[in-house]
Write a structure and sequence with these properties.
By secondary structure, this protein is of the alpha/beta class. 35% of the residues lie in helices and 21% in strands.
């Protein structure tokens, strides 16, 4: 392991596999996630596609977060950590940044490492990095999965410098009934849903940090605003939108945002105490 990797960690790795430091033991949670990532990677390597969502939808979600990273990562060479880095699709767009990635899938981390990202395997609740090490942290489609949300967020904030920026993307007002179905193949997928109010309470009231902005994304696969009780009209709107999809990008975005609900939400936080006299 090189000196750059050694410098960022506060504790030794349990082991190193495929030149990737591993900080968490295998357990029921990581095994469940390994099953999910194996399905994803096998399908991706065979087809180049994500088996869980269409590529254009996935790219729309990623683009919304990518734009926020560009907005706040104003200095080249800053240290950025992607928690739940996956295959490194987000960080591959920022080659001038000092990029780190953490995940609990060794398969995903192999792809991210091949893109020049310094990676490790760890549960968020066992964050291995030194305190105040990173200038920016990003985490996408992760917080809905973790078992201990408050602990995970405190661990993430602990490794970000005072005044540093955290960008979070999570599902928006998701219906979780699917994950309770007895035939659903995985034990832990999405464990909670979010909206703008719950996120602001979480960060401003519980964690006492500053929210900078909130944006919405995922209109391409969003729920029609006419609501579930108007199934005929919802289907009709979707057929119309398949035609509208052929319009220029800005016009499509304008129309889709007025017809559909977003499926995900981004929130940007500055790691600064709102009330310095109060600590979470």
């Amino acid at each position: 392991m090189n000196s750059k990797l050694n410098d960022c960690y506060k504790k030794p790795a349990l082991k190193i596999e495929d030149d990737i430091p591993i900080f968490s033991q295998t357990d029921f949670y990581t095994e469940n996630y390994d099953r999910i990532s194996k399905v994803h990677l096998e399908h991706f390597e065979a087809t180049g596609q994500n088996p869980f969502m269409p590529e254009d939808h996935w790219r729309e979600l990623e683009k919304s977060t990518e734009e926020l990273v560009k907005k706040y990562a104003v200095e080249p060479g800053i240290k950025i950590l992607d928690v739940g880095v996956g295959m490194g699709r987000l960080l591959e767009h920022f080659p001038k940044l000092n990029r780190y990635g953490m995940d609990i899938s060794l398969g995903y981390l192999g792809h991210a490492k091949a893109k020049g990202i310094e990676v490790c395997l760890s549960r968020i609740e066992e964050m291995p990095y030194k305190n105040n090490y990173f200038d920016m942290l990003v985490t996408t489609d992760v917080l809905e999965h973790v078992l201990d949300l408050n602990l995970a967020l405190r661990e993430m904030l602990s490794v970000v410098k005072e005044g540093g920026v955290v960008v979070v993307r999570v599902p928006y007002k998701e219906d979780l009934k699917l994950y309770l179905h007895p035939d659903f193949p995985y034990d832990f997928v999405h464990l909670r849903s979010f909206d703008e109010s719950s996120l602001r309470i979480l960060f401003e009231k519980i964690l006492n940090v500053q929210v900078l902005e909130i944006t919405f994304t995922g209109y391409r696969c969003g729920r029609p605003k006419v609501g579930a009780n108007f199934r005929y009209y919802a289907g009709l709107i979707r057929r119309i939108m398949n035609v509208v999809r052929l319009l220029p990008g800005t016009l499509y975005t304008y129309i889709s945002q007025r017809v559909f609900q977003p499926v995900e939400i981004n929130i940007v936080i500055r790691n600064s105490k709102m009330d310095p006299k109060r600590s979470p």
